[in-house]
Amino acid sequence: MKVIFFDVDGTLLSHNTNQIPESTIQSLEALKEKGILRVLCTGRHMKELEEMNFSYMDFDAWILLNGQLILNKEKQVIWSNPVINHTLIDLFVQNKYPIQLLEEKDFYINYVNDYVRFAQKSIHTAVPEIKKYNGNVIYQGIGFVNEEQEKELKKLLKDCLITRWNPYAVDIVSKDGGKGKAIKQFLHLYNLSKEESMAFGDGFNDQDMLKEVNIGVAMGNAVDELKEMASYVTNDIDYDGIYNALIHFNIL
């Protein structure tokens, strides 16, 4: 095994304790000592990771915004996949739904309602700042919508990939985007094969990630859909899930 990709929320970070389990921290350090690349693969923005103290962790690369940006160890962009969709911008400007836009260096929202507050509270994250669209390149959107509104969004944004990550929110990326595409690109950039890769995840947006690696591990707290297609289902995050899976596959 030469590279392992890790989701953040529910995989590295427990939302029960709002901490990374000690066994996971020790596992990451042990992988480093073995020379195995540890790559963060998350829907989060780097600004959020900085606030969570993740940016100070010694990862070998960063796949952000559900695969829309790949950063190297020094946090320099080495690949990107922007969202080119004028309808998304129109929906933001018209305030049809609460929509968060994420650029490379910043993110903001058009307005805030209870869906926004509930979704952000569930991941222990502050409500985004309200700003106007400034014309910069957008890499991801987040729509704070219910399931009926999600259907409307999918009709309006047919050339986007929309994935629910919370009862109150969906991610919006390029139709050809997602964590899986970014992992394929990463393996190409680093001259690695699928057979040399592994990934850990727990959510709907981790499905394509697990498909693009040799060993796809679903956390014990993962959604059922991810467990059904995973190579292996490990323990819950709060019961040493990552460590136990690495032991199971004789990686540690």
From TrEMBL:
Q: Which residues form a coiled coil?
A: none
Return the Gene3D superfamilies for the record: 3.30.1240.10, HAD superfamily/HAD-like (3.40.50.1000)
The GO terms this record gives for MF are: magnesium ion binding; phosphatase activity
**Keywords on this record?**
Hydrolase
Q: Which GO terms describe its cellular component?
A: cytosol
Q: Does the keyword Transmembrane helix apply?
A: no
Q: Which domain of life is it from?
A: Bacteria
Q: Which SUPFAM superfamilies match?
A: HAD-like
The record's annotation in InterPro entries points to: Cof, HAD-like_sf, HAD-SF_hydro_IIB, HAD_sf
Does Hydrolase appear among the keywords? yes
UniProt protein name? Cof-type HAD-IIB family hydrolase
Q: What is the lineage of its organism?
A: Bacteria, Bacillati, Bacillota, Erysipelotrichia, Erysipelotrichales
